[in-house]
Amino acid sequence: MFSACLHTKSILLWLIPILFAALFGIVNFIIHVNKSETSKRSDSKVSLFAGMLAGGITGVAISLATYIPYMMIILKILATAFASFTCLSLIIALANNILLGEPKKLLNAIKILAGFFYLESNNQGFFLQVMRGISRFTWELMQTITGNIYCQLRNAFGGVDKVVYFGGASFSIKESGDGSGISLGNNIQANIPGAYNKVAGELLLMHEYGHTFDSMRFGILYLPVPGLASLISAYRNVYNKATGICTHDSYWTERRANRFAARYFKRCGINWTDYDTPNRFAYYPRYK
């Protein structure tokens, strides 16, 4: 009996990395081809092999983690929660497609799921892409799964108009929204005030993207430290009608996100200085 269990674990130790490598590489390749970011064959190969390497190493890490006491139980709980909510979202989206003839929810649900395996290509080297992919399913696993579930539920109940990929992140966007947003791992849900044009230049989307850098730095502490602090700040937010400024705008977690965003989007021609000054329509300060 013991030898049979050991044999099964040995098979999984090899099977999981192979499946992860194939899934990660193929999905990342397909996303990049459809985004038209990989116009050259060499770029397409980079997205394929970066995804395969990240998936393979992640698969090995997950396989080895099953030998750690209680880790198997934790992984099973996370996998069950993820599978349950994802299936619920897909069922609702499929029913909406069949009964109402609206394919948008189903397409969004598939894109949100595929976003798990999307890595940036344009602004990162090969090994940095691989490291971010590994981090997503290890160091950032809790917020990655939580964020994907949240976006799936938002989509299932009409909170997502479109899903776009940018910079290794999956953006679930609600147009004509209230200007709120949340960033969990590489999953971003944002309610932009107007119609979507592109990420670079849309302040809310750039700001939320800035939070993804803190996710990488804080890892397993992202949810209980900056995540919880930001949530409490948003709850206690005070809005000044005269100036149009909110206290949450200048909270430390938000300023950090703005600094990361400013550095990243500078390459896109964005000058963040314009948003540091209190402004009713565009106040995203980097400093106190």
Give a description of the structure.
This protein has 288 residues and is of the alpha+beta class. It has one domain (74-275). The protein is built from 9 helices and 6 strands. The chain has helices at 2-35, 41-65, 71-100, 104-114, 126-136, 141-156, 203-218, 223-235, 252-265; strands at residues 162-166, 169-174, 181-184, 187-191, 239-240, 245-246. It has a 4-stranded mixed β-sheet with strand order 1-2-4-3, with helices on both faces. It has a two-stranded antiparallel ribbon with strand order 5-6. A hairpin with a 2-residue loop joins β1 and β2 (169-174). The model has no long low-confidence stretch (mean pLDDT 88).
Mean pLDDT: 88
First-residue to last-residue Cα separation: 63 Å
Number of domains: 1
SS-based class: alpha+beta
Helix-strand string: HHHHHHEEEEHHEEH
In terms of DSSP E residues, the strand content is 5-15%
Low-confidence stretches: none
User: Helicity range of the residues?
Assistant: 55-70%
Short description:
Helices cover 59% and strands 8% of the residues. It is an alpha+beta fold.
What topology does this entry show?
Elements (H helix, E strand, L loop, with lengths): L1 H34 L5 H25 L5 H30 L3 H11 L11 H11 L4 H16 L5 E5 L2 E6 L6 E4 L2 E5 L11 H16 L4 H13 L3 E2 L4 E2 L5 H14 L23
Parallel strand pairs: 2-4
Antiparallel strand pairs: 1-2, 3-4, 5-6
Helix pairs in contact: 1-2, 2-5, 3-4, 3-6, 4-6, 7-9
